[in-house]
């Protein structure tokens, strides 16, 4: 049996979080958070359904139960739309968005007679009836699989995209959303396992899982900063860059001559080596393009085509070289965190990851090897 108290707390927390996301206190990622709020509302209604059954009140509220059963078909499309808005530089709303809820509408119309009269819709042809009910039974897991896959692909592409424009990605890589997708799969598998096998004590573990999931999502969703915190015109340029064909060389030929490329390479390397702009841990493609006096698009092509790197790799290569110098001449006995910050990294994790990727050694291993 479920732990009714934990289910009740989880449902209440989910309703509260859905309200907070719809009216985010920081006003960050507004559209994305509102769709995430819709997802949490659907999740809260599913928990409320479990709560009502645990209290044995389902016969007293048949209309409520019918509606709560339908709410689960809103969850997957709402989560996908949230991911889509989180990962898009420009946010545009169209009425076609509601096409994602067509399945919910069909099921709602099919259930409407029972919700109004208390009687199921009668279908004379038993074969047709069997087909329809089989479809409805399979619709939820199929919907989950489709939207989960679409969401995962969006987040994977996002992690590649932000390396084209940011030198520090930890705060905008949306790793918590990827973890949420894994949690969703675990929850769905748990639901199906309980429905078909009803293992002893399984429901109690499921209750704890729901509770932890709600508060995990509460912490990370409210903590998330604006993913694309740039002016509207900059966002339009970034959108073009992130959706361009990487194999199209014609754009470089139209924008930059060989003379311009050589001049810009000298200017860029001067900014990196003499002015050491990479020490700014918030350095971004738009900020560096402003210092260069060229468009974001031109700087992106310069780094991608002339250096064969994305912006993230290009900047962090200079930071790693600075860190190596600090490690080899550490007379002040700086800690690894101090070295990371002085080299331009904004966290020890990103420092360790970038350093090992470029040198094959951790910072500590590199220092010991040099001393030896």
UniProtKB/TrEMBL annotation:
<protein>
    <submittedName>
        <fullName>Helix-turn-helix domain-containing protein</fullName>
    </submittedName>
</protein>
<feature type="transmembrane region" description="Helical">
    <location>
        <begin position="171"/>
        <end position="196"/>
    </location>
</feature>
<keyword id="KW-0804">Transcription</keyword>
<feature type="transmembrane region" description="Helical">
    <location>
        <begin position="93"/>
        <end position="110"/>
    </location>
</feature>
<keyword id="KW-0812">Transmembrane</keyword>
<feature type="transmembrane region" description="Helical">
    <location>
        <begin position="202"/>
        <end position="222"/>
    </location>
</feature>
<keyword id="KW-0238">DNA-binding</keyword>
<dbReference type="InterPro" id="IPR018062">
    <property type="entry name" value="HTH_AraC-typ_CS"/>
</dbReference>
<feature type="transmembrane region" description="Helical">
    <location>
        <begin position="6"/>
        <end position="23"/>
    </location>
</feature>
<keyword id="KW-1133">Transmembrane helix</keyword>
<feature type="domain" description="HTH araC/xylS-type">
    <location>
        <begin position="269"/>
        <end position="369"/>
    </location>
</feature>
<feature type="transmembrane region" description="Helical">
    <location>
        <begin position="61"/>
        <end position="81"/>
    </location>
</feature>
<keyword id="KW-0472">Membrane</keyword>
<dbReference type="InterPro" id="IPR018060">
    <property type="entry name" value="HTH_AraC"/>
</dbReference>
<dbReference type="Pfam" id="PF12833">
    <property type="entry name" value="HTH_18"/>
</dbReference>
<dbReference type="InterPro" id="IPR020449">
    <property type="entry name" value="Tscrpt_reg_AraC-type_HTH"/>
</dbReference>
<feature type="transmembrane region" description="Helical">
    <location>
        <begin position="35"/>
        <end position="55"/>
    </location>
</feature>
<feature type="transmembrane region" description="Helical">
    <location>
        <begin position="130"/>
        <end position="150"/>
    </location>
</feature>
<dbReference type="InterPro" id="IPR009057">
    <property type="entry name" value="Homeodomain-like_sf"/>
</dbReference>
<keyword id="KW-0805">Transcription regulation</keyword>
């Amino acid at each position: 049996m479920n732990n009714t108290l934990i289910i009740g707390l989880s449902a209440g927390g989910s309703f509260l979080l859905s309200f907070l996301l719809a009216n985010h206190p920081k006003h960050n990622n507004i559209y994305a958070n509102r769709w995430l709020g819709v997802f949490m509302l659907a999740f809260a209604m599913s928990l409320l359904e479990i709560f009502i059954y645990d209290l044995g009140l389902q016969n007293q509220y048949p209309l409520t139960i019918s509606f709560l059963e339908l709410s689960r078909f809103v969850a997957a499309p709402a989560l996908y739309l949230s991911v889509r808005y989180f990962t898009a530089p420009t946010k545009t709303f169209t009425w076609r968005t509601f096409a994602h809820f067509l399945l919910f509408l069909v099921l709602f119309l099919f259930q409407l007679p029972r919700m109004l009269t208390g009687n199921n819709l009668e279908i004379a042809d038993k074969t047709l009836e069997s087909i329809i009910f089989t479809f409805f039974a399979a619709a939820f897991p199929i919907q989950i699989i489709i939207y989960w896959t679409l969401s995962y692909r969006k987040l994977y592409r996002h992690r590649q995209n932000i390396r084209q424009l940011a030198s520090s990605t930890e705060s905008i890589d949306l790793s918590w959303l990827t973890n949420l997708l894994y949690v969703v799969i675990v929850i769905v598998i748990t639901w199906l396992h309980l429905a078909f096998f009803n293992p002893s004590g399984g429901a109690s573990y499921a209750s704890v899982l729901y509770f932890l999931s709600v508060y995990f999502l509460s912490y990370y969703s409210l903590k998330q900063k604006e993913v694309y915190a740039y002016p509207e015109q900059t966002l339009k340029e970034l959108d073009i860059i992130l959706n361009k064909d990487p194999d199209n060389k014609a754009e470089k030929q139209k924008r930059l001559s060989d003379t311009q490329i050589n001049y810009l390479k000298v200017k860029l390397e001067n900014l990196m080596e003499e002015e050491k702009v990479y020490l700014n841990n918030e350095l971004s493609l738009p900020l560096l393009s402003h210092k260069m006096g060229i468009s974001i698009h031109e700087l992106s092509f310069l780094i991608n085509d002339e250096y064969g790197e994305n912006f993230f790799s290009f900047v962090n290569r200079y930071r790693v070289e600075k860190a190596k110098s600090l490690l080899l001449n550490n007379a002040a006995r700086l800690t690894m965190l101090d070295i990371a910050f002085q080299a331009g990294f904004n966290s020890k994790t990103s420092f360790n990851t970038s350093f090992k990727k470029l040198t094959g050694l951790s910072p500590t291993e590199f220092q010991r090897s040099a001393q030896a």
